[in-house]
Design goal:
123 residues; alpha+beta; ADP-ribosylation fold; 4-stranded antiparallel sheet; 9 strands; globular
Length: 123
């Protein structure tokens, strides 16, 4: 689990991944030219910055874990928010690399909380 990388998906995006066996990215991903991913210790910060009640309408999110070794050379670690290296995938995200997932619900009217086992990851 320590080597996993993560994608936060809305319910429709999760359904697309399952139905088509890949996910080409959100509107933000397509704008930037890559699929935005997070390492475990970065997930909560990504949730706090980009996924609020105002942005999601309170809908559940899915936190999907992927094996980075199955993503090949299209996976790059690049400096982003706060000078940290974030994983970016320059290809559609394949369902075959999925290792686990969790449904995230609002803990209150303001934010989502990642599972503790994810946020404790230091890689």
């Amino acid at each position: 689990m320590a080597n996993m990388i993560f994608k936060i998906l809305t319910a429709p995006q999760w359904e697309t991944l399952q139905a088509t066996h890949s996910f080409a990215g959100s509107a933000d991903d397509k704008r930037d030219g890559f699929v935005h991913l997070s390492k475990g210790a970065q997930v909560q910060g990504t949730l706090d910055k980009h996924y609020s009640y105002a942005k999601t309408g309170g809908d559940n999110l899915v936190l999907a874990a992927f094996d980075p070794d199955m993503l090949g050379d299209a996976l790059k670690y690049e400096t982003s928010r706060g000078g940290e290296d974030f994983p970016h995938l320059y290809a559609p995200l394949p369902l075959t690399a999925l290792t686990n997932h969790w449904v995230l619900q609002l803990t209150d009217k303001s934010h989502y909380t990642a599972p503790e086992l994810i946020t404790d990851m230091r890689r």
